[in-house]
Task: structure prediction
Amino acid sequence: MVDFIKEDVIYDLLQKAQKCEAGEVREIIAKAMECKGLDLSEVAKLLYVEREDLLEELLDAAKFIKNKVYGKRVVLFAPLYTSNECTNNCLYCGFRRDNKELHRKTLSTREIVSEAKAIEAQGHKRILLICGEDPGKTHVDHMVEAMEAIYKSADIRRINVEAAPMKVEDYKKLKDAGIGTYVIFQETYNREVYKKMHPVGLKADFDWRITAIDRAFEAGIDDVGVGALLGLYDYRFEVLGLLMHVQSFEKRFGVGPHTISVPRLRPALGWGLNEIPNEVNDQDFKKIVAIYRMAIPYTGIILSTRERAEFRDELLSIGVSQISAGSKTNPGGYKEDDDKADQFEVSDHRSLPKMLETICDKGYIPSFCTACYRRCRTGEAFMEYAKGAEIHSFCQPNAILTFKENLMDFGTEVLKEKGNGIIHKALTEIEDLKIREMTEEKLKEIENGKRDLYF
Ligand code: SF4
Result:
């Protein structure tokens, strides 16, 4: 049995954390604002913060860290579901084997490319390929062929993949095909709950799943994304479990996660539950996002369209750095919607241009940047840049350049007006005058028709 997650240690930390006084909470918050992260016992104490004034201080600290590390950038992407066929029976998921109501479909490579082109036509440059686990249909070659065809036929510049655990040699195939981030959620870090939620199929094996990231690293993939499905078990346990997992692979491979996702469980058509077992309310959800931001300040936090529009907007300031927009969660959904084929119900239905307008209205700058991955600033190299705050010298100019490209190619008049205003402001925020000048030159080149310029 793999022992990355020491449940007795987590329960012990949680029990001791309940006695934490306000003074100690404030000391932990002050430490977090140094942007060096927090240890598990400190995180446990923050997870018990309920007092309104302390909660406000905690959220304010997360805002400060988000701003210091990420500035005003918000990275955008769209999911591309290649299949909803699955041999597992995860009780919380609409794709599960026993859901007879679901319209099943696995896209051909040609259909996947057509979906990628539809996503590209919205203005996206980054996609997340996702599928259920069906060894006969969604094996690694299905993903690899899709990636190769998309890179060849569409102007999609980064393909991240969320897929079931694989063997090292299969991860190597994804690496060779040009994977950006490999994303895998443990769903729950509690073994008992995991067993209950994953009664049959390959996914029933907790250890095979929790060691997936190790095998991805062994295959040379050094950008990984993790997540716990919030709502399956006590959120405090899940946050500590996830951070314990992170510590374990960071210690062994020297690289932390590139992203953490914060999916919150929602009812799905044909799921196997009667209710959400441990529903996380909005207040606690905000606290979780803020605590992740404080505990691992250099890791991106991803929020999907499961959440409501206005709540997503609010979470941007607290710590979320990447969001999906204009999403469809059924295979083929960008060409043809089918609400009997979705994995979950989308709550935020705003199109990408509408989302971009909102981001601008809130004073943020949208980014379609994919430069780090293409310049090999991944894994340990990325963390070095990020922790030395040097990443700012690349990210802000690259956000400006990629957003400008989007405005030129897809912008409505309203969006152009808002976007150019934000770009102007973002330019003045580039402290290094040489880089500011170079960015201005590249902006002129984009106006004159050049594309795909980055630092
Ligand atoms: S969560 Fe993934 S593995 Fe489980 S039923 Fe859904 S698609 Fe299949």
Remarks:
- Strands lie at 73-83, 126-131, 158-162, 179-183, 224-227, 259-261, 300-303, 322-324, 365-367.
- The two ends are 45 Å apart (CA to CA).
